[in-house]
Design a protein that fits this description.
Low-confidence stretches: none
Structural class: alpha/beta
Distance between the termini: 31 Å
Order of helices and strands: EEHEEEHEEHEHEEHEHEEEHEH
Strand content: 25-35%
Shape: globular
Number of helices: 8
């Protein structure tokens, strides 16, 4: 695994495109300014990075693109505070700081030959997107794919271009849902909270693995639903990157008992976290 981190000094990167995903979320597509570093940079689905606005600060984000598509790196940023507000002001041609990759990653080898169930909520689709792209690009290595993705409203659904592509992907089923009250008159998807819709779908647990990410409350009720449906805790994988802040195990924001998400994760099986203090 190649890392461009040296003494935690960020490397310069150039933004090539900014995509509005929703009213408060943008995707930034960029390359490392040093072409040699960019060509050498490697990562795995589920790993994260530190994204820097010089003079303002930095934030931790998952890498939302797949290592199978490395021409441009991508991070999706929801505006929730001072630094993310500064990030949202960036435009094509602006320079940012980037360092990474950090953390562990989704078990892409263990998932081979399995039927995969992806359960995402809101901007929590970002880390799943990296893995979904990876699996689709290596389609023959994996079984059937079910993607369940939900958001508060139709306007909050992200990655419209990817959703269109996933609808057409081979042996792939995409189910979209919005919270009650978030639908529009022409909405053709489902209406209901993600864990509820998941139980209604009742996907087979035979030779299946589940990968889920979203708001902590969604993860909590999703894993409970999967437990009721008979999925084994070791067959349920989640990423807790939304709990991180500093990314180096110093601030304490991401600790769950003796576990630090940024140091021991951000990817865990439900078997690894179900007996830890309830933080969701």
């Amino acid at each position: 695994m190649s890392s461009i981190v040296e003494n935690y000094v960020p490397h310069k990167a150039i933004i090539h495109e900014v995509i509005d995903e929703s009213s408060d979320t943008k995707t930034f597509r960029f390359t490392l300014a040093d072409e040699k570093l960019h060509k050498e940079f490697d990562f795995k689905p589920g790993q994260f990075c530190e994204f820097t606005v010089f003079g303002e600060g930095e934030c931790t984000f998952c890498i939302a693109s797949s290592p199978t598509r490395k021409e441009l790196l991508e991070c999706s940023v929801k505006k929730v505070g001072k630094v993310t507000e500064s990030i949202h002001k960036l435009r094509k041609g602006h320079t940012i700081g980037f360092r990474g990759p950090y953390g562990n990653w989704f078990p892409v080898d263990d998932l081979k030959g399995k039927n995969l169930i992806f359960v995402g909520g809101g901007i929590g689709l970002a880390p799943l997107r990296s893995l979904i792209q990876y699996v689709i690009d290596k389609r023959s290595d994996y079984g059937r794919i079910l993607i369940l993705y939900g958001a508060r409203s139709v306007a909050d659904l992200c990655y419209e271009r990817d959703l269109r592509a996933w609808y057409k992907a081979p042996d792939t089923e995409l189910i979209l849902t919005v919270d009650p009250g978030g639908e529009t008159p022409d909405w053709k998807g489902k209406v209901g909270f993600v864990p509820t819709v998941l139980e209604q779908l009742n996907p087979s647990k035979e030779n299946a693995k589940v990968v889920t990410c979203g708001p902590p409350i969604m993860i909590k009720f999703t894993v409970q639903a999967l437990d009721r449906m008979g999925f084994k805790p070791e067959d349920v994988v989640t990423t807790l990157e939304m709990k991180m802040k500093c990314g180096i195990g110093k601030c304490g924001r991401c600790n769950i008992g003796h576990i630090y998400v940024c140091k021991h994760g951000p990817v865990f099986t439900y078997a690894q976290i179900k007996d830890l203090p309830q933080e969701f």
